[in-house]
Design a protein that fits this description.
The complex is a heterodimer of chains A (about 220) and B (about 325).
Chain A (H helix, E strand, L loop, with lengths): L1 H18 L12 H21 L9 H15 L6 H6 L22 H10 L10 E9 L7 E6 L8 E6 L13 E13 L2 E13 L7 E2 L1
Parallel strand pairs in A: 2-6
Antiparallel strand pairs in A: 1-2, 1-4, 2-3, 4-5
Helix pairs in contact in A: 1-2, 1-3
Chain B lengths: L1 H34 L15 H8 L8 H13 L4 H10 L5 H10 L4 H22 L4 H4 L2 H9 L8 H4 L21 H32 L2 H9 L1 H15 L6 H9 L4 H10 L5 H6 L6 H26 L1
Helix pairs in contact in B: 1-3, 1-10, 2-4, 2-6, 3-4, 4-6, 5-13, 6-16, 12-14, 12-16, 13-14, 14-16
Classes of the chains: A alpha+beta (about 220), B mainly alpha (about 325).
């Protein structure tokens, strides 16, 4: 009985993570169906164990009980990570792009595509004056003005790597860490710490809710 | 509080990513337990000192399981009379040299194809070295007592005298835990054992994910970079971590992801090679197979071997 119940609890927790959409915040999309299938398999195994052992009482082992508490906590407490904090503890190193995105017109490029383009073509003058339309979270820097950023993942949140763009924030703007913003504006060139870099010059800044799928591949 | 929330999210990400692979490993281990008891073919495996561990190591592809799942399978092989080298080659290599683990390694590190070759190659080499080393010990000093008794029962009398065999005309009765050789467990038994195994391993996985998420969130990045950037220190640090974290080989690649960016390539490979052979959880599991001295020899030799492989990889990759 105990084993069957535990398997059902874990199966439901895994399946609920898929159904509730919280997996969008944790894993890359290609793994979602695999996780969902394992949740179903666990539910099925739990029901089978319950049916076969309905008269048998398992002696619950304490590690099982601890893991049951963890499954319950995962069900009750959805993830709510601080992307800014996470980004500060990670090196910047973007995965290879899934496609040749830099051929898109400037105003259709995502923030990550802009960062990839600037890494492949580091001369900021080549993009100066280009219009842009991007969204991302505010990445608070320990030493310097905040960036507008996105997290990219190969697998799950554990390997998330940040990609950020410097912004020439207007004097009245008060960007708060983890706040999601949509920025329309242009690219410009500024000299910071003796280096010429491409900087986003916003014309409009809009606060937006966190996107349904905030992690990029 | 913000840090705690981030650690909680990383923990959930690691756990939910790893559960499908753990489940798959346990399912296959259950299937292997169902198939292996028919042991007529086991005694026909090659007993050549070099061919035996190679055969055992390659059997991982046919009987894929993580290191916890394969301990009972390796025990069954040895008890059924498989050559020692084959049993140990399987025990040490199968946790890495199998499709599930290779798939999870690829899923975690699609941008590092060298790892997909270096991990199985390193595990293969390590398994052969350990098997050759352990083969130098006599069986009576190597194998756990009950396993030795079971194994002797399966060997022909021309190889052993009646006293060694411990049964027969003047021997003792069969050990209580000696399973009937040709009996296949029922699907119900397999489901029972596999569900217990899954829940046991799940608890260890939870612990491993807690440690990995805590290290990622609270260990200052400067420390990680300082240790991780030094070739030898990074290998030793990740070897210790592999032993402590004790996570299954089918999911350890996902945990390694958390450290991958901060450590040397040799350290990353060392983490992925040592964990499946030596860790705190296996120290308990191995006692059903080997005597304490043999376990100690395995731990020391595997650590030295992994350190050397890691150093070599750092020389090549850095």
């Amino acid at each position: 009985m105990t084993r069957g119940l535990l398997l059902i609890l874990w199966g439901w927790m895994v399946l609920w993570s898929v159904l509730s959409g919280r997996l969008d915040l944790l894993l890359r999309g290609i793994f979602h169906s695999l996780v969902g299938a394992s949740g179903l398999a666990l539910l099925l195994a739990g029901v089978m164990v319950m049916i076969r052992n309905r008269r048998q009482r398992d002696v619950p082992r304490w590690p099982w009980l601890v893991s049951a508490v963890v499954a319950g906590l995962v069900l009750l407490m959805p993830p709510n990570p601080s992307f800014s904090d996470l980004a500060n503890n990670r090196p910047q190193g973007l995965p290879e792009p899934p496609e040749l995105a830099f051929v898109l017109p400037p105003e259709q490029r995502s923030l990550t595509e802009w960062v990839r383009l600037l890494r492949s073509q580091p001369d900021p003058d080549l993009v100066a004056g280009n219009p842009l339309n991007i969204s991302g979270f505010v990445w608070s820097q320990p030493d310097g003005p905040p960036l507008i950023a996105r997290l990219t993942v190969r697998c799950c949140l554990a390997d998330a790597t940040p990609s950020g763009l410097p912004v020439a924030w207007p004097a009245d703007a008060e960007p708060k860490a983890n706040q999601w913003l949509a920025i329309q504006g242009t690219m410009a060139v500024e000299t910071r710490h003796g280096e010429r870099i491409a900087v986003v010059v916003p014309t409009t800044i809009t606060t937006i809710p966190r996107p349904k799928r905030p992690l990029e591949p | 509080m913000e840090r705690l929330a981030t650690a909680w999210a990383i923990f959930q990400g690691l756990l939910l990513e790893a559960i499908p692979f753990l489940l798959l490993g346990v399912l296959i281990a259950g299937l292997a337990r169902w198939l292996v008891p028919q042991s007529a073919w086991v005694s026909r495996l090659p007993s050549n000192p070099l061919l035996a561990p190679i055969t055992g190591a390659l059997m991982g592809f046919a009987l894929p399981a993580c290191e916890c799942g394969n301990v009972p399978v390796a025990r069954r092989l040895l008890a059924s009379g498989a050559p020692l080298g084959t049993g140990f080659g399987f025990l040490f290599a199968a946790p890495v040299l199998n499709p599930i683990v290779l798939a999870s390694t690829w899923a975690a590190f699609p941008d590092q194809p060298w790892l997909l070759i270096a991990r199985p190659a390193g595990a293969f080499l390590l398994a052969i070295l350990l098997s050759l080393l352990l083969a130098q010990l006599p069986e009576s000093q190597l194998l756990e007592t009950a396993l030795l008794s079971e194994r002797r029962l399966s060997q022909p009398l021309r190889n052993l005298d009646l006293l060694q065999r411990g049964s027969g005309l003047i021997g003792t009765p069969l050990p209580a835990n000696a399973a009937p050789r040709a009996q296949r467990p029922s699907p119900r038994d397999v489901l029972d054992q596999s569900s217990r195994e899954f829940l046991d391993l799940l608890a260890l996985l939870v612990l491993g994910c807690v440690i990995a998420a805590a290290v990622q969130t609270w260990l200052p990045r400067s420390w990680l970079l300082e240790i991780g950037g030094a070739p030898t220190a990074s290998i030793l640090a990740l070897m210790v971590l592999a032993v402590v974290v004790s996570v299954c080989s089918s999911v350890d690649a996902f945990l390694a992801l958390g450290f991958a960016a901060q450590v040397t390539p040799g350290a990353l490979l060392a983490f992925l090679l040592l964990g499946p052979v030596v860790d705190l959880k296996l120290a308990g599991l191995f006692t059903v197979l080997m005597r304490p001295r043999a376990i100690a020899i395995t731990a020391v030799a595997a650590s030295l071997g992994v350190l050397l492989i890691g150093q070599w990889v750092n020389l090549w990759q850095l």
